[in-house]
Amino acid sequence: MSIPKYHEFMKPILELLKDNQNHKRVELYKKLALQFALTKEEMEEWLPSGKQLVYKNRIGWALTYLKKARLIESPARATFKITELGQSVLLDNPSEIDPNYLRKFEGFNDFVDSSNEDTLLDENIQDNSTGESPQDLLDRAYKTISNTLTDDLLTEIMNQSPEFFEKLVVDLLVSMGYGGSKIENSQVLGKTGDEGIDGIIKEDKLGFDKIYIQAKRWDLDRTVGRPELQKFVGALTGQGATKGAFITTAQFTKDAKEYVDKQHACKIVLIDGKTLASLMIEHNLGVSIENVYYIKRIDTDYFNDESV
Protein backbone atom coordinates (compact mmCIF):
# COMPACT_ATOMS: atom_id res chain seq x y z
CA MET A 1 0.00 0.00 0.00
CA SER A 2 1.34 3.42 -0.97
CA ILE A 3 1.16 6.54 1.19
CA PRO A 4 -2.44 7.83 1.13
CA LYS A 5 -3.23 11.07 -0.66
CA TYR A 6 -3.74 14.02 1.65
CA HIS A 7 -7.55 13.97 1.36
CA GLU A 8 -7.64 10.27 2.27
CA PHE A 9 -6.45 11.26 5.74
CA MET A 10 -9.38 13.65 6.32
CA LYS A 11 -12.14 11.27 7.42
CA PRO A 12 -9.78 9.13 9.55
CA ILE A 13 -8.63 12.32 11.31
CA LEU A 14 -12.22 13.24 12.16
CA GLU A 15 -12.83 9.73 13.47
CA LEU A 16 -9.75 9.95 15.68
CA LEU A 17 -11.01 13.26 17.08
CA LYS A 18 -14.62 12.18 17.65
CA ASP A 19 -14.01 11.75 21.42
CA ASN A 20 -14.10 15.58 21.76
CA GLN A 21 -10.65 15.54 23.40
CA ASN A 22 -7.56 17.52 22.46
CA HIS A 23 -5.06 15.55 20.38
CA LYS A 24 -1.48 16.51 19.60
CA ARG A 25 -0.26 16.54 16.03
CA VAL A 26 2.50 14.03 16.82
CA GLU A 27 -0.12 11.66 18.26
CA LEU A 28 -2.13 11.86 15.03
CA TYR A 29 0.99 11.10 13.00
CA LYS A 30 1.56 7.89 14.97
CA LYS A 31 -2.04 6.71 14.96
CA LEU A 32 -2.61 7.38 11.27
CA ALA A 33 0.65 5.69 10.30
CA LEU A 34 -0.48 2.65 12.28
CA GLN A 35 -4.01 2.75 10.88
CA PHE A 36 -2.79 2.82 7.28
CA ALA A 37 -0.05 0.25 8.04
CA LEU A 38 2.67 2.46 6.60
CA THR A 39 5.95 0.62 6.17
CA LYS A 40 9.26 1.85 7.56
CA GLU A 41 10.29 2.85 4.04
CA GLU A 42 7.08 4.83 3.50
CA MET A 43 7.48 6.60 6.84
CA GLU A 44 11.02 7.59 5.86
CA GLU A 45 10.12 8.92 2.41
CA TRP A 46 10.97 12.62 2.05
CA LEU A 47 9.58 15.26 -0.23
CA PRO A 48 11.89 16.09 -3.17
CA SER A 49 12.80 19.27 -1.30
CA GLY A 50 14.12 17.13 1.58
CA LYS A 51 12.39 19.41 4.09
CA GLN A 52 9.63 17.14 5.40
CA LEU A 53 8.45 13.55 5.40
CA VAL A 54 5.76 12.88 2.79
CA TYR A 55 3.16 11.30 5.08
CA LYS A 56 3.51 14.07 7.67
CA ASN A 57 3.19 16.72 4.97
CA ARG A 58 -0.03 15.15 3.66
CA ILE A 59 -1.50 14.80 7.14
CA GLY A 60 -0.61 18.45 7.71
CA TRP A 61 -2.54 19.54 4.62
CA ALA A 62 -5.51 17.39 5.65
CA LEU A 63 -5.53 19.12 9.04
CA THR A 64 -5.30 22.53 7.37
CA TYR A 65 -8.27 21.87 5.08
CA LEU A 66 -10.42 20.43 7.89
CA LYS A 67 -9.61 23.45 10.02
CA LYS A 68 -10.46 25.87 7.20
CA ALA A 69 -13.81 24.09 6.80
CA ARG A 70 -14.26 24.51 10.58
CA LEU A 71 -14.71 20.79 11.11
CA ILE A 72 -11.82 20.91 13.58
CA GLU A 73 -10.19 23.64 15.62
CA SER A 74 -6.78 24.20 17.16
CA PRO A 75 -7.17 25.25 20.82
CA ALA A 76 -3.40 25.19 21.36
CA ARG A 77 -0.22 24.98 19.31
CA ALA A 78 0.01 21.68 17.36
CA THR A 79 -3.21 20.53 19.07
CA PHE A 80 -6.55 19.70 17.43
CA LYS A 81 -10.13 19.07 18.50
CA ILE A 82 -13.30 18.24 16.59
CA THR A 83 -16.07 20.85 16.38
CA GLU A 84 -19.83 20.37 16.48
CA LEU A 85 -19.84 20.79 12.71
CA GLY A 86 -17.23 18.04 12.45
CA GLN A 87 -19.36 15.75 14.61
CA SER A 88 -22.32 16.36 12.31
CA VAL A 89 -20.19 15.33 9.35
CA LEU A 90 -19.37 12.04 11.06
CA LEU A 91 -23.11 11.48 11.65
CA ASP A 92 -23.68 12.15 7.96
CA ASN A 93 -21.02 9.47 7.33
CA PRO A 94 -19.87 10.43 3.82
CA SER A 95 -18.00 7.71 1.93
CA GLU A 96 -15.09 10.10 1.52
CA ILE A 97 -14.13 13.58 2.61
CA ASP A 98 -12.19 15.50 0.00
CA PRO A 99 -11.91 19.15 -1.13
CA ASN A 100 -15.05 18.83 -3.27
CA TYR A 101 -17.01 17.62 -0.25
CA LEU A 102 -15.61 20.45 1.87
CA ARG A 103 -17.12 22.91 -0.63
CA LYS A 104 -20.35 22.38 1.31
CA PHE A 105 -18.99 24.55 4.11
CA GLU A 106 -18.80 28.33 4.12
CA GLY A 107 -15.45 28.48 5.89
CA PHE A 108 -13.77 26.34 3.29
CA ASN A 109 -15.32 28.31 0.42
CA ASP A 110 -14.03 31.52 1.96
CA PHE A 111 -10.59 29.94 2.17
CA VAL A 112 -10.60 28.83 -1.48
CA ASP A 113 -12.23 31.94 -2.89
CA SER A 114 -9.71 34.16 -1.14
CA SER A 115 -7.01 32.53 -3.28
CA ASN A 116 -6.18 33.83 -6.73
CA GLU A 117 -7.85 31.81 -9.48
CA ASP A 118 -4.45 30.91 -10.91
CA THR A 119 -3.00 29.41 -7.72
CA LEU A 120 -2.12 25.77 -7.27
CA LEU A 121 -4.62 25.59 -4.43
CA ASP A 122 -7.60 26.63 -6.54
CA GLU A 123 -6.73 24.29 -9.40
CA ASN A 124 -6.22 21.42 -6.97
CA ILE A 125 -9.71 21.99 -5.49
CA GLN A 126 -11.42 22.10 -8.87
CA ASP A 127 -9.70 18.99 -10.23
CA ASN A 128 -8.88 16.52 -7.52
CA SER A 129 -8.16 13.60 -9.85
CA THR A 130 -4.58 13.33 -8.61
CA GLY A 131 -5.35 13.83 -4.93
CA GLU A 132 -2.16 15.86 -4.53
CA SER A 133 -1.72 18.63 -2.00
CA PRO A 134 -0.37 22.05 -3.07
CA GLN A 135 3.02 21.01 -1.62
CA ASP A 136 2.90 17.77 -3.65
CA LEU A 137 2.18 19.74 -6.82
CA LEU A 138 4.96 22.23 -6.16
CA ASP A 139 7.51 19.53 -5.34
CA ARG A 140 6.48 17.49 -8.38
CA ALA A 141 6.89 20.54 -10.61
CA TYR A 142 10.32 21.19 -9.08
CA LYS A 143 11.33 17.57 -9.67
CA THR A 144 10.17 17.74 -13.31
CA ILE A 145 12.18 20.93 -13.89
CA SER A 146 15.25 19.36 -12.24
CA ASN A 147 14.97 16.18 -14.31
CA THR A 148 14.69 18.23 -17.49
CA LEU A 149 17.73 20.29 -16.51
CA THR A 150 19.66 17.08 -15.79
CA ASP A 151 18.94 15.78 -19.30
CA ASP A 152 19.84 19.15 -20.85
CA LEU A 153 23.14 19.24 -18.95
CA LEU A 154 24.13 15.77 -20.13
CA THR A 155 23.25 16.69 -23.72
CA GLU A 156 25.43 19.80 -23.49
CA ILE A 157 28.31 17.83 -21.95
CA MET A 158 28.18 15.31 -24.80
CA ASN A 159 28.58 18.18 -27.28
CA GLN A 160 31.91 19.15 -25.68
CA SER A 161 35.35 17.64 -26.18
CA PRO A 162 36.85 14.94 -23.94
CA GLU A 163 39.43 17.50 -22.78
CA PHE A 164 36.63 19.86 -21.68
CA PHE A 165 35.04 17.01 -19.75
CA GLU A 166 38.27 16.30 -17.87
CA LYS A 167 38.43 19.95 -16.84
CA LEU A 168 34.74 19.90 -15.91
CA VAL A 169 35.10 17.09 -13.38
CA VAL A 170 38.03 18.86 -11.71
CA ASP A 171 36.02 22.09 -11.61
CA LEU A 172 33.16 20.18 -9.98
CA LEU A 173 35.33 18.77 -7.21
CA VAL A 174 36.77 22.22 -6.56
CA SER A 175 33.25 23.69 -6.38
CA MET A 176 32.40 20.96 -3.85
CA GLY A 177 35.19 22.23 -1.60
CA TYR A 178 38.05 19.88 -2.38
CA GLY A 179 41.45 21.50 -2.61
CA GLY A 180 40.23 24.24 -0.32
CA SER A 181 38.10 25.53 -3.22
CA LYS A 182 41.26 26.70 -4.97
CA ILE A 183 41.77 25.74 -8.59
CA GLU A 184 45.55 25.82 -8.16
CA ASN A 185 45.19 22.80 -5.87
CA SER A 186 43.95 20.75 -8.81
CA GLN A 187 45.53 19.47 -11.99
CA VAL A 188 44.23 18.14 -15.31
CA LEU A 189 46.79 15.70 -16.65
CA GLY A 190 45.47 15.22 -20.16
CA LYS A 191 46.24 12.39 -22.56
CA THR A 192 50.00 12.20 -22.62
CA GLY A 193 51.59 10.01 -20.00
CA ASP A 194 48.59 10.10 -17.70
CA GLU A 195 48.85 6.33 -17.07
CA GLY A 196 45.07 6.05 -16.67
CA ILE A 197 44.74 9.15 -14.47
CA ASP A 198 42.98 12.22 -15.93
CA GLY A 199 43.22 14.58 -12.99
CA ILE A 200 44.50 15.10 -9.47
CA ILE A 201 43.02 17.24 -6.74
CA LYS A 202 44.22 17.89 -3.21
CA GLU A 203 41.67 16.70 -0.67
CA ASP A 204 42.58 19.39 1.84
CA LYS A 205 44.12 22.88 1.82
CA LEU A 206 47.57 21.65 2.86
CA GLY A 207 47.65 18.84 0.35
CA PHE A 208 48.24 15.99 2.81
CA ASP A 209 46.14 13.69 0.64
CA LYS A 210 45.18 13.58 -3.03
CA ILE A 211 42.24 12.28 -5.02
CA TYR A 212 43.03 10.80 -8.43
CA ILE A 213 40.39 11.16 -11.11
CA GLN A 214 39.38 9.10 -14.10
CA ALA A 215 37.06 11.08 -16.39
CA LYS A 216 35.31 9.39 -19.31
CA ARG A 217 32.87 11.20 -21.59
CA TRP A 218 31.23 8.11 -23.01
CA ASP A 219 27.83 7.59 -24.64
CA LEU A 220 25.00 7.98 -22.12
CA ASP A 221 23.66 4.47 -22.79
CA ARG A 222 27.07 2.81 -22.51
CA THR A 223 27.84 0.72 -19.44
CA VAL A 224 31.09 0.75 -17.50
CA GLY A 225 31.96 -2.75 -16.33
CA ARG A 226 34.42 -4.38 -14.00
CA PRO A 227 37.37 -4.43 -16.48
CA GLU A 228 37.45 -0.62 -16.66
CA LEU A 229 37.41 -0.38 -12.86
CA GLN A 230 40.21 -2.96 -12.57
CA LYS A 231 42.36 -0.81 -14.88
CA PHE A 232 41.62 2.23 -12.73
CA VAL A 233 42.57 0.39 -9.56
CA GLY A 234 45.81 -0.64 -11.27
CA ALA A 235 46.53 2.98 -12.18
CA LEU A 236 45.90 4.07 -8.59
CA THR A 237 48.21 1.39 -7.30
CA GLY A 238 50.91 2.53 -9.71
CA GLN A 239 50.61 6.05 -8.26
CA GLY A 240 50.63 4.79 -4.69
CA ALA A 241 47.18 6.39 -4.34
CA THR A 242 44.52 5.41 -1.84
CA LYS A 243 41.59 7.49 -3.14
CA GLY A 244 40.05 7.77 -6.57
CA ALA A 245 36.92 9.01 -8.33
CA PHE A 246 35.72 7.44 -11.56
CA ILE A 247 33.44 9.99 -13.17
CA THR A 248 31.61 9.26 -16.41
CA THR A 249 28.55 10.23 -18.43
CA ALA A 250 27.79 6.53 -18.84
CA GLN A 251 26.32 4.03 -16.36
CA PHE A 252 28.03 1.51 -14.07
CA THR A 253 27.11 -2.15 -14.12
CA LYS A 254 26.16 -3.99 -10.96
CA ASP A 255 29.33 -6.05 -11.26
CA ALA A 256 31.45 -2.88 -11.38
CA LYS A 257 29.80 -1.49 -8.25
CA GLU A 258 30.28 -4.75 -6.36
CA TYR A 259 33.95 -4.87 -7.38
CA VAL A 260 34.53 -1.35 -6.05
CA ASP A 261 32.78 -2.17 -2.77
CA LYS A 262 35.24 -5.01 -2.18
CA GLN A 263 38.33 -2.82 -2.52
CA HIS A 264 40.14 -2.25 0.78
CA ALA A 265 43.52 -0.87 -0.31
CA CYS A 266 41.91 2.18 -1.92
CA LYS A 267 38.61 4.00 -1.66
CA ILE A 268 36.86 4.56 -5.00
CA VAL A 269 33.78 6.70 -5.62
CA LEU A 270 31.69 6.07 -8.74
CA ILE A 271 29.80 8.97 -10.30
CA ASP A 272 27.59 8.22 -13.32
CA GLY A 273 25.96 10.68 -15.70
CA LYS A 274 22.79 11.34 -13.70
CA THR A 275 24.75 11.81 -10.47
CA LEU A 276 27.24 14.08 -12.22
CA ALA A 277 24.48 16.35 -13.53
CA SER A 278 22.77 16.43 -10.12
CA LEU A 279 26.02 17.48 -8.44
CA MET A 280 26.54 20.19 -11.03
CA ILE A 281 23.06 21.55 -10.31
CA GLU A 282 23.58 21.36 -6.55
CA HIS A 283 26.89 23.23 -6.72
CA ASN A 284 25.88 25.69 -9.47
CA LEU A 285 28.41 24.51 -12.04
CA GLY A 286 27.32 25.12 -15.62
CA VAL A 287 23.90 26.34 -14.46
CA SER A 288 22.48 29.65 -13.26
CA ILE A 289 19.60 30.47 -10.94
CA GLU A 290 16.53 31.62 -12.87
CA ASN A 291 13.98 32.10 -10.08
CA VAL A 292 13.86 31.74 -6.30
CA TYR A 293 10.62 30.94 -4.47
CA TYR A 294 10.38 31.22 -0.69
CA ILE A 295 7.92 28.94 1.09
CA LYS A 296 7.41 30.19 4.61
CA ARG A 297 5.88 28.60 7.71
CA ILE A 298 4.94 29.70 11.19
CA ASP A 299 7.92 30.37 13.48
CA THR A 300 6.68 28.44 16.53
CA ASP A 301 9.61 29.66 18.65
CA TYR A 302 8.46 33.25 18.20
CA PHE A 303 4.94 32.48 19.41
CA ASN A 304 6.26 30.41 22.31
CA ASP A 305 8.43 33.16 23.85
CA GLU A 306 8.08 32.61 27.60
CA SER A 307 9.99 35.82 28.40
CA VAL A 308 6.99 38.00 27.40
UniProtKB/TrEMBL annotation:
Residues 159-280 form the Restriction endonuclease type IV Mrr domain. Keywords: Endonuclease, Hydrolase, Nuclease. Residues 6-90 form the Restriction system protein Mrr-like N-terminal domain. Gene3D superfamilies: 3.40.1350.10. InterPro entries: Mrr-like_N_dom (IPR025745), Restrct_endonuc-II-like (IPR011335), Restrct_endonuc_IV_Mrr (IPR007560), tRNA_endonuc-like_dom_sf (IPR011856), Type_IV_Methyl-Rstrct_Enzyme (IPR052906). One of its GO terms (molecular function) is endonuclease activity. The keyword Metal-binding does not apply. Pfam families: Mrr_cat, Mrr_N. Its EC number is 3.1.21.-. It is an enzyme of class 3 (hydrolase). This is Restriction endonuclease.
